[in-house]
Write a structure and sequence with these properties.
This protein has 276 residues and is α/β, with parallel strands linked by helices. It contains nine helices and ten strands. Strands 2-1-3-6-4-5 form a six-stranded mixed beta sheet. Strand 9, helix 9 and strand 10 form a beta-alpha-beta unit. The radius of gyration is 18 Å and the shape is globular. The two termini are 26 Å apart. The relative contact order is 0.16.
Length: 276
Amino acid sequence: MSYEKYLVVASKKDRAGINITTQLSQFRENPLFSSLKKTPSFDFYLVEDEIIQTRSLDLDRINQYDFIIFASKHESEKGEKSLTVHAPGNFREARFGGEKGKLCRTSAMFQKQLFEKLIENAEKYHLRDYDLTMEATHHGPLIDKPCLFAEIGSTENEWRDNKAGFVVAKAISEAIEEFKPNPYNEVVIAIGGPHYCPNFNKIQASSNIAISHVISQYVFPLTEEMVKEAIQKTEEEIDFVLLDWKGLGNEEHRKILKGILDKLYLNSKKTSDIKK
Protein backbone atom coordinates (compact mmCIF):
# COMPACT_ATOMS: atom_id res chain seq x y z
CA MET A 1 0.00 0.00 0.00
CA SER A 2 1.41 3.36 -1.04
CA TYR A 3 0.07 6.83 -1.77
CA GLU A 4 1.25 8.97 -4.68
CA LYS A 5 -1.04 12.00 -4.73
CA TYR A 6 -1.68 13.88 -1.49
CA LEU A 7 -4.01 16.81 -0.91
CA VAL A 8 -3.48 19.27 1.96
CA VAL A 9 -6.78 20.92 2.88
CA ALA A 10 -7.21 24.05 5.03
CA SER A 11 -9.89 26.65 5.65
CA LYS A 12 -9.31 30.27 4.66
CA LYS A 13 -10.92 31.15 8.01
CA ASP A 14 -8.35 29.14 9.98
CA ARG A 15 -5.16 30.97 11.00
CA ALA A 16 -3.31 27.76 11.85
CA GLY A 17 -4.32 26.07 8.60
CA ILE A 18 -3.13 29.07 6.58
CA ASN A 19 0.09 29.18 8.62
CA ILE A 20 0.83 25.50 7.90
CA THR A 21 -0.02 25.66 4.18
CA THR A 22 1.98 28.88 3.69
CA GLN A 23 5.03 27.25 5.28
CA LEU A 24 4.41 24.02 3.35
CA SER A 25 4.48 25.79 -0.03
CA GLN A 26 8.30 26.09 0.20
CA PHE A 27 8.62 22.30 0.30
CA ARG A 28 6.44 21.66 -2.75
CA GLU A 29 8.25 20.55 -5.88
CA ASN A 30 7.13 21.63 -9.31
CA PRO A 31 4.32 19.12 -10.08
CA LEU A 32 5.84 18.52 -13.53
CA PHE A 33 9.16 17.41 -11.99
CA SER A 34 7.52 15.13 -9.43
CA SER A 35 5.39 13.48 -12.14
CA LEU A 36 8.47 12.89 -14.30
CA LYS A 37 10.36 11.38 -11.36
CA LYS A 38 7.31 9.40 -10.18
CA THR A 39 7.76 10.68 -6.64
CA PRO A 40 4.88 11.41 -4.25
CA SER A 41 3.47 14.92 -4.63
CA PHE A 42 0.98 17.15 -2.84
CA ASP A 43 -1.42 19.89 -3.83
CA PHE A 44 -3.29 22.50 -1.78
CA TYR A 45 -7.02 23.01 -1.45
CA LEU A 46 -8.11 26.13 0.45
CA VAL A 47 -11.75 26.00 1.48
CA GLU A 48 -14.03 29.00 2.12
CA ASP A 49 -15.71 27.52 5.20
CA GLU A 50 -14.95 25.15 8.11
CA ILE A 51 -13.23 21.94 7.00
CA ILE A 52 -14.91 19.82 9.69
CA GLN A 53 -18.19 20.21 7.76
CA THR A 54 -18.46 17.80 4.83
CA ARG A 55 -20.71 20.25 2.98
CA SER A 56 -17.80 22.74 2.83
CA LEU A 57 -15.75 20.38 0.69
CA ASP A 58 -15.70 19.62 -3.04
CA LEU A 59 -15.75 15.82 -2.76
CA ASP A 60 -15.15 15.32 -6.50
CA ARG A 61 -11.91 17.23 -6.12
CA ILE A 62 -10.91 15.32 -2.98
CA ASN A 63 -11.62 11.98 -4.65
CA GLN A 64 -8.89 12.63 -7.24
CA TYR A 65 -6.24 12.13 -4.50
CA ASP A 66 -4.91 9.10 -2.63
CA PHE A 67 -4.53 10.64 0.84
CA ILE A 68 -5.91 13.80 2.46
CA ILE A 69 -4.20 15.85 5.19
CA PHE A 70 -6.36 18.43 6.95
CA ALA A 71 -4.22 21.29 8.31
CA SER A 72 -6.08 22.98 11.11
CA LYS A 73 -6.19 24.84 14.38
CA HIS A 74 -6.76 22.96 17.61
CA GLU A 75 -8.82 24.48 20.41
CA SER A 76 -8.90 23.40 24.05
CA GLU A 77 -10.33 24.79 27.27
CA LYS A 78 -6.90 24.89 28.92
CA GLY A 79 -5.36 26.74 25.97
CA GLU A 80 -2.14 24.74 26.11
CA LYS A 81 0.48 24.88 23.35
CA SER A 82 0.25 21.71 21.30
CA LEU A 83 0.81 19.99 17.98
CA THR A 84 -1.74 17.24 17.47
CA VAL A 85 -2.48 14.39 15.07
CA HIS A 86 -5.70 12.40 14.83
CA ALA A 87 -8.13 10.65 12.52
CA PRO A 88 -11.59 12.16 11.94
CA GLY A 89 -14.88 10.47 12.75
CA ASN A 90 -17.65 10.21 15.33
CA PHE A 91 -18.30 7.18 17.52
CA ARG A 92 -21.46 8.76 18.92
CA GLU A 93 -23.20 12.06 18.16
CA ALA A 94 -21.82 14.20 15.31
CA ARG A 95 -21.75 17.55 17.13
CA PHE A 96 -18.85 18.91 15.08
CA GLY A 97 -19.30 17.71 11.50
CA GLY A 98 -19.38 14.24 9.97
CA GLU A 99 -22.08 11.67 10.75
CA LYS A 100 -23.15 9.80 13.86
CA GLY A 101 -21.29 6.49 14.32
CA LYS A 102 -19.17 6.87 11.17
CA LEU A 103 -15.39 7.23 10.85
CA CYS A 104 -13.08 8.23 8.02
CA ARG A 105 -10.54 5.81 6.68
CA THR A 106 -7.02 6.39 7.97
CA SER A 107 -3.56 4.82 7.84
CA ALA A 108 -1.90 3.71 11.08
CA MET A 109 1.47 3.72 9.27
CA PHE A 110 1.13 7.29 8.01
CA GLN A 111 -0.12 8.53 11.39
CA LYS A 112 2.86 6.95 13.12
CA GLN A 113 5.40 8.31 10.65
CA LEU A 114 3.91 11.83 10.78
CA PHE A 115 3.91 11.75 14.59
CA GLU A 116 7.57 10.66 14.58
CA LYS A 117 8.43 13.49 12.15
CA LEU A 118 6.67 16.04 14.36
CA ILE A 119 8.73 14.92 17.37
CA GLU A 120 11.94 14.93 15.32
CA ASN A 121 11.40 18.41 13.86
CA ALA A 122 10.15 19.99 17.09
CA GLU A 123 13.41 18.88 18.70
CA LYS A 124 15.59 19.84 15.74
CA TYR A 125 14.18 23.39 15.52
CA HIS A 126 13.87 23.89 19.29
CA LEU A 127 10.10 24.31 19.36
CA ARG A 128 9.84 24.48 23.13
CA ASP A 129 6.80 24.29 25.41
CA TYR A 130 4.59 22.54 22.85
CA ASP A 131 3.02 19.20 23.76
CA LEU A 132 3.14 16.72 20.87
CA THR A 133 0.15 14.47 21.15
CA MET A 134 -2.28 12.23 19.35
CA GLU A 135 -5.95 12.75 20.00
CA ALA A 136 -8.75 10.23 20.11
CA THR A 137 -10.78 10.01 16.90
CA HIS A 138 -13.31 12.85 16.87
CA HIS A 139 -15.21 15.39 14.70
CA GLY A 140 -15.86 15.64 10.96
CA PRO A 141 -15.76 15.83 8.05
CA LEU A 142 -16.76 12.47 6.62
CA ILE A 143 -15.02 11.66 3.33
CA ASP A 144 -14.27 8.46 1.42
CA LYS A 145 -10.48 8.85 1.25
CA PRO A 146 -7.89 7.94 3.89
CA CYS A 147 -7.06 11.05 5.88
CA LEU A 148 -5.93 12.65 9.12
CA PHE A 149 -5.71 16.02 10.87
CA ALA A 150 -2.47 17.83 11.73
CA GLU A 151 -3.19 20.71 14.08
CA ILE A 152 -1.63 23.59 16.02
CA GLY A 153 -3.17 24.49 19.38
CA SER A 154 -4.63 26.09 21.21
CA THR A 155 -4.89 29.91 20.98
CA GLU A 156 -4.46 32.67 18.40
CA ASN A 157 -0.81 33.09 19.48
CA GLU A 158 0.07 29.49 18.59
CA TRP A 159 -2.04 29.45 15.41
CA ARG A 160 0.06 32.38 14.13
CA ASP A 161 3.39 31.01 15.45
CA ASN A 162 5.60 30.74 12.34
CA LYS A 163 7.98 28.27 13.93
CA ALA A 164 5.09 25.94 14.90
CA GLY A 165 3.73 26.23 11.34
CA PHE A 166 7.17 25.46 9.94
CA VAL A 167 7.62 22.37 12.14
CA VAL A 168 4.20 20.95 11.18
CA ALA A 169 4.81 21.76 7.49
CA LYS A 170 8.26 20.15 7.45
CA ALA A 171 6.90 17.07 9.23
CA ILE A 172 4.10 16.75 6.66
CA SER A 173 6.45 17.17 3.68
CA GLU A 174 8.93 14.62 5.05
CA ALA A 175 6.20 12.12 5.96
CA ILE A 176 4.87 12.36 2.39
CA GLU A 177 8.30 12.14 0.77
CA GLU A 178 9.60 9.31 2.95
CA PHE A 179 6.42 7.32 3.65
CA LYS A 180 7.07 3.59 3.83
CA PRO A 181 4.39 0.94 4.29
CA ASN A 182 6.58 -0.90 6.82
CA PRO A 183 5.71 -4.64 6.93
CA TYR A 184 7.36 -4.95 10.35
CA ASN A 185 5.04 -2.58 12.20
CA GLU A 186 2.25 -4.12 14.24
CA VAL A 187 -0.98 -2.27 13.43
CA VAL A 188 -3.59 -1.64 16.13
CA ILE A 189 -6.69 0.26 17.04
CA ALA A 190 -6.47 1.65 20.59
CA ILE A 191 -9.19 1.66 23.24
CA GLY A 192 -9.39 3.51 26.57
CA GLY A 193 -7.77 6.40 28.34
CA PRO A 194 -8.35 10.16 28.04
CA HIS A 195 -8.69 12.23 24.89
CA TYR A 196 -5.01 13.15 24.59
CA CYS A 197 -3.80 9.54 24.79
CA PRO A 198 -0.73 9.84 27.10
CA ASN A 199 -0.08 6.09 27.20
CA PHE A 200 -0.71 5.63 23.49
CA ASN A 201 1.57 8.59 22.63
CA LYS A 202 4.57 6.84 24.20
CA ILE A 203 3.88 3.68 22.20
CA GLN A 204 3.32 5.52 18.90
CA ALA A 205 6.58 7.44 19.42
CA SER A 206 8.92 4.72 20.63
CA SER A 207 7.75 1.21 19.81
CA ASN A 208 7.15 -0.98 16.78
CA ILE A 209 3.40 -0.41 17.00
CA ALA A 210 1.43 1.85 14.62
CA ILE A 211 -1.85 3.17 16.04
CA SER A 212 -4.86 3.91 13.86
CA HIS A 213 -8.21 4.99 15.36
CA VAL A 214 -8.39 5.69 19.09
CA ILE A 215 -11.61 5.02 21.01
CA SER A 216 -11.41 7.12 24.17
CA GLN A 217 -13.08 6.27 27.47
CA TYR A 218 -15.46 9.23 27.18
CA VAL A 219 -17.47 7.53 24.41
CA PHE A 220 -18.09 4.44 26.57
CA PRO A 221 -20.04 2.22 26.97
CA LEU A 222 -18.23 0.54 24.10
CA THR A 223 -20.27 -1.14 21.38
CA GLU A 224 -19.44 -3.85 18.86
CA GLU A 225 -20.22 -1.35 16.06
CA MET A 226 -17.57 1.08 17.34
CA VAL A 227 -14.86 -1.58 17.30
CA LYS A 228 -15.88 -2.92 13.88
CA GLU A 229 -16.01 0.59 12.40
CA ALA A 230 -12.52 1.43 13.74
CA ILE A 231 -11.10 -1.77 12.25
CA GLN A 232 -12.88 -1.42 8.91
CA LYS A 233 -11.76 2.21 8.57
CA THR A 234 -8.07 1.34 9.07
CA GLU A 235 -6.24 0.97 5.76
CA GLU A 236 -3.90 -1.75 7.07
CA GLU A 237 -4.88 -5.11 8.54
CA ILE A 238 -5.15 -4.99 12.35
CA ASP A 239 -2.80 -7.24 14.33
CA PHE A 240 -4.44 -6.74 17.73
CA VAL A 241 -6.32 -4.24 19.90
CA LEU A 242 -4.25 -2.05 22.23
CA LEU A 243 -5.84 -1.37 25.62
CA ASP A 244 -5.17 1.39 28.14
CA TRP A 245 -6.29 -0.95 30.92
CA LYS A 246 -6.42 1.62 33.71
CA GLY A 247 -8.28 3.95 31.37
CA LEU A 248 -11.13 1.55 30.67
CA GLY A 249 -13.36 2.90 33.43
CA ASN A 250 -15.20 0.53 35.71
CA GLU A 251 -15.51 -3.26 35.86
CA GLU A 252 -18.72 -3.17 33.82
CA HIS A 253 -16.94 -1.41 30.93
CA ARG A 254 -14.13 -3.98 31.01
CA LYS A 255 -16.68 -6.79 30.95
CA ILE A 256 -18.41 -5.29 27.89
CA LEU A 257 -15.03 -4.87 26.17
CA LYS A 258 -14.02 -8.48 26.84
CA GLY A 259 -17.34 -9.73 25.46
CA ILE A 260 -16.88 -7.72 22.23
CA LEU A 261 -13.26 -8.84 21.74
CA ASP A 262 -14.24 -12.49 22.31
CA LYS A 263 -17.19 -12.27 19.92
CA LEU A 264 -15.03 -10.72 17.17
CA TYR A 265 -12.08 -13.11 17.84
CA LEU A 266 -9.73 -10.19 18.48
CA ASN A 267 -6.45 -10.46 20.36
CA SER A 268 -5.53 -7.65 22.72
CA LYS A 269 -2.54 -6.33 24.67
CA LYS A 270 -2.29 -3.80 27.48
CA THR A 271 -0.12 -0.70 27.09
CA SER A 272 1.82 -1.85 30.17
CA ASP A 273 2.86 -5.01 28.29
CA ILE A 274 4.48 -3.12 25.38
CA LYS A 275 8.22 -2.50 25.30
CA LYS A 276 8.87 1.19 24.72
